[in-house]
UniProtKB/TrEMBL annotation:
PANTHER family: HOMOSERINE DEHYDROGENASE, PTHR43070. L-homoserine binds at E226. It is an enzyme of class 1 (oxidoreductase). Its EC number is 1.1.1.3. This is Homoserine dehydrogenase. It comes from Luteibacter yeojuensis.
Amino acid sequence: MSIAIAPPHSPLRAAPRRAVAPLVVHVGVVGPGKVGTALLTQLRLMAPRLASHCNLELRLRAVSDSRHMWLDCDDEALNGRSHGAQTWRPADLDEFAAYVAGDGGEPAVLADCSASDVVADRYAGWLAAGIHVVTPNKRAASGPLERWRRIGVAAGASGARLHYEGTVGAGLPVVQTLRDLLDTGDELVAVEGMLSGTLAWLFNRFDGSTPFSALVREAHALGYTEPDPRDDLSGMDVARKLVILAREAGVALSLEDVEVRGLVPDDLAACSPDAFMESLDALDAPMAARLAAARAAGGVLRHVARLDGRRAAVGVETIEPDHAFAHARLTDNVIRFATRRYCDNALVVQGPGAGPEVTAAAVFADLLRVAGAMGVKRCAC
Ligand SMILES: NC(=O)C1=CN([C@@H]2O[C@H](COP(=O)(O)OP(=O)(O)OC[C@H]3O[C@@H](n4cnc5c(N)ncnc54)[C@H](O)[C@@H]3O)[C@@H](O)[C@H]2O)C=CC1
Ligand SMILES: N[C@@H](CC=O)C(=O)O
């Protein structure tokens, strides 16, 4: 077999493709904690591929935590001027956003990887100014309804996008799955599930051989918990996720509407996060008693969330050992959507529901969705 190779000047040789200028998107990351740092790593690793395959340049312009911000943090010249150290200045979210947006007309996306209401308070202003927002922070979508509506109005008026897939199920496709069901005419009837990676992991591991407090410390070190693990143990983090799903389905639910049965003793509810972590042993005896009671009843402990219309409840339950929730592994979340179409058998999304890397990937994918809406093609070739 011979393979014909066209000579250099043959008309069969494809003309060199005219270089098309890449789409440059300015990016700012708020909250370089566990998720934010994983996102920064993923952005750096994927930059060459996005440039070569998608003609997309995600240009990191700035990073801010609660106290410092780094502008042009990838600028070698700027870093060089301070002997290789990153140059920082006191955090100022307005200055930060304006710097990320720049004045050259490039689209800008802010990735909020904090768990802060202060940052969520800025979304409406950013969106109104045409700055896109992607986030795993649940505060906006589950916080005060009035703020959430203002955010929606701002995005609607400017056309800027807000994506928050990472808020429920971390890297699992939960919010978009529900959106797709509803946008194609389905109706949500009920949601039942395990919506906390931390609590799933804790109850998978808690067999009495290790104190509950030691497991909580381990979950915190693994990056599964919220910055303040009381948000997980109190059930509030799961309540937030239920509120997000309810609002997605058009139900104007608020956190106060959710019946929350938590695990945090009243006397530890108000202390500082550090003091709480030091007092964790206080959970050991009550949790050992719960485990013993569940075993005596022939069941296992699981943290379960339920939404049915406006009725929403979260808490620890004793469930049968052959129930599907009893067989979820590690940090698995299980989200069962009962809808008008999926009525005989619910649509189930299941998989790891916590961890910095999977969560960062959800934020990254949201960022690529924003770029996709600007015409960037995502393909494997
Ligand atoms: N860790 C996980 O598995 C998942 C986390 N999430 C969400 O991701 C977010 C981040 O979680 P982690 O990285 O684990 O927390 P973290 O505590 O490691 O990081 C939080 C970061 O936010 C920064 N921050 C706090 N207030 C700020 C402010 N006012 N302005 C600027 N920065 C501020 C902190 O300085 C820190 O860098 C949270 O909203 C969490 O609910 C969502 C799904 C899963
Ligand atoms: N702390 C949360 C993280 C994801 O939202 C959890 O454990 O589910």
